[in-house]
Amino acid sequence: MLNVDNLIIDYSTGFLGKKSRVLKGVNFSVNDGEIFGFIGPNGAGKTTTFKSILGFITQVSGSISIFGKSNSDVELKSKIGYLPESPYFYDYLTGNELLQYMAKLHGVEQPILSKRIEDLLHKVGMSHAKDVQLRKYSKGMLQRIGIAQALVNDPDFLILDEPMSGLDPRGRREIHELILEQKKRGKTILLSSHILSDIESLCDRVGVIINGVVVKTGILADLFREIKTDYEMLLNCDKQTLLNNIDSNTVSIDERAGFLILRFDESDKSHLLKLLLDLNAEIVSMYPLRKSLEGLFIEESEKTNNY
Amino acid sequence: MERIIKNSELSVMIVVLLIIISIPIQNRIDRIRGNFSIIKQTLYLTSSSLKKLSLGYEQILSDIYWMRAIQYFGSSKVNFEDKDPDTLYKYFDIITDLDPKFVNAYRYGGTFLAEPFPAGLGMPELGIKLFDKGRNNNPSNFRLPLEEAFVYYLYLKDYDKAAKLFRESSNKPGLSDFRSASIRGMAATALNRGGKRDIAAQIWEYIYNTSENEGRRQYALQNLNELRAKDEEDKLTSVLKKYIKDKGTVPESMDELKESGYIKKIPKDYGGKDFIISKKLGVVRSSTLAKKELEENVRFYTAKAERYKKKYGHYPQKFNELKEFIINNSTFIEYRSNPMGEGYKYDPETGKVSYDKSFLEK
Amino acid sequence: MNRILVIAQNTFKEAVRDRILYSLILFAILMIISSLVFSTISAEQYNKIVKDIGLTAISLFGIMISIFLGMSLVHKEIEKRTVFNIFSKPVRRFEFITGKYLGLSFTLFVITFAMGLILFLIVLYVELQHGRFIEYYYGGHYFLEFFSAIYFEFLEFIVVIGIALIFSSFTTPVLAVLMTFLMFAAGRFSSDIKLLGENTNNLLVKIITEFIYRVIPNLEKFDLRSEAVYGGKITFNLIFYTTAYSLIYVFILLILSITIFEKREFK
After folding, report:
1. Which residue among B22, B29, B101 sits closest to C230, beta carbon to beta carbon?
2. DSSP conformational letter for A257
3. How do residues A229-261 score in pLDDT, each as one tens digit?
């Protein structure tokens, strides 16, 4: 469906046009019928990548192909649906009018047009506000309308930039269902997010972009399996005794409410437990720190920095 | 189409091509609209900065100046002495620079400047300057030369010039044969200088018939009455002269003429007042007309004294100084003597001129 | 083609829902109606005052609307980021520019028509009241010239919109308004520029002034306000050639805008 090959993008900033390289060679592909999650910390280049896929900015070098054709082919857009990062719309139009406008730009004609708009409004839960001007919409409402306008041409390829942002839990669930439904219909979806639970439950594959480079692509579970896990332990023990016996470079020691808090990673776990048993320390509790995207990012950043 | 536009060199070439095509079209339009350079040239040489600032909205700017002029010069609240002819001329000069075809501006301004007090500002030389400009910018208008001819005839008494302008007017388009012929007739008569009052009467009749403004018509009517009064004066004066020749003395009053049988009855003048005899001049005058002339002259002199003061900073010491000032500063105005043959009284402190009213009471 | 019309339709809708537009139109109508008041103190120049004030009002406000709304045509979409919505659909850059231009031009057509109608009713009223006088001193009612004057003012509007569109495609709003206004002023000064060239002996000045006179649209061509009062030679040829002149410049300005806009990136 989509193939991005060594994409390099420069931005010129300031009056003199000083160039900064925002994308330094992005490579990834999205297969037909899958849901691909594009993840990375803020400023990594997610939105920039999407904008160049859609032809809003031109690349220094590299190529992008969609449906096997170059992305500069304007006609391709009739099979694409795009949700931009923050909802940007015409505030003087009503929800209904916006969808009509977008649909007409796609060349969707009556009677399909009215029926489809009605269905979409219902699907995103905006039927009640369809005749209200967009300037009066809340962020969540704008997000929903945004998704609706992305679907107005029944696209084969959906590109969604942070589709869940601004939504309450019920909204997120609805959109979640909607995306899965599109997949069931055979559509391909590329989305970006930095909320782990969304990615975990939706995406078949993910791509991790850090500092303008895609550092890893693959199945999320596989990616997590590679990263080390941290543990945290609550302990009753004499601090000095502990300090004498533990290498504080690998194990961090804190005090809280009379207890000692130890933090350490997988590799230190077994020898530390043995040590504490020998010291007769009282272990109150021990638990692994939750796997997080931040962890993944930090891990990958460190790897990149080490190059 | 898309490919053409994506190639910017090509689109620049197309743009250049289109500009080249626009040139002959622009020329065509210039030819049709015609004389833009002539008119604009007069503008360029005069109040061009105002025209430039108006950015194509000259018409309305000329209207604004027009309304200002009307408000100021037509206002009864402003003292007559404060209505400076130079200011009026300047206003109308600007108005007609901005809108050279504003024929009525030339007519109203020129007439108001030329006519004597109290109807106008008594500066016919400025008036004709405005009319000349109007004729220059509106060469096919018949009213401008016609009304300028009036000024020459009535106030400047330059009959040759008046005749020339009458003839010019009669040749303009838009006149009926009858009207054209009658104007040409005025030209002929002016040249002959005979029957001066006939033409003057014709002129006021014309103004009476063609004015929409009631005030102006009344003014024309008044002038016609005065002309008729002068005719009556002439008739009575010739009778008086006969009496003087026969009897060798000047009669004291009109009653003597009647009693001696020279006239059948004593007429009243157009104002309902008596006719009186001026011993010094040996003529019969209508007292209404004489009084009017005296009033006018007095106002004229007083206004001229004010002009003197504006120029030199003080009123003239003697009446003769005032006379000299008037003669030296206008080529056309004659010194107006007292219609009853008497002199004027002058107060150098206040610059006010007056006359002895007792002469009218006879 | 259809997409162009869809965009034009939306542009029209946007203009019609713009509050600034309504304030300007209101002022224009007030000015037109005030002409009746002024005409009573104008010493019998009734029709001249009414026509002058009315035609100037339409022109003045039309130019203002053309500059301000024309300037925001592209700039607003970029600033409000709605360009992302547009160009994620199969819309070509030239379709966007053309559609926006047509939408605003049509808006101005409607406005000019409405104001022209109101003014015409007032002129008609004045003519009925003082017909004989007007006939006598001005030589006629000149209705053909009057409507031609309004039509020509519209021709000027669509050129000014084009100028504003170009500048809006690549500069900030403040600069765009300034540059558009300067070019508008230069367009109105055209014959003075030409005269400057004719009256000078300096060859360089001659070349420059001739160049400016030929390249910058000569907006004086669209001024028929004097003829609307005093009459003039309004032939079919004049209308045809002036329309052609306006359309040529509309094409020039559109092509330039599109060329500039093709290169534009949306960050």
Report:
1. B101
2. T
3. 778 888 888 888 877 777 767 777 888 888 888
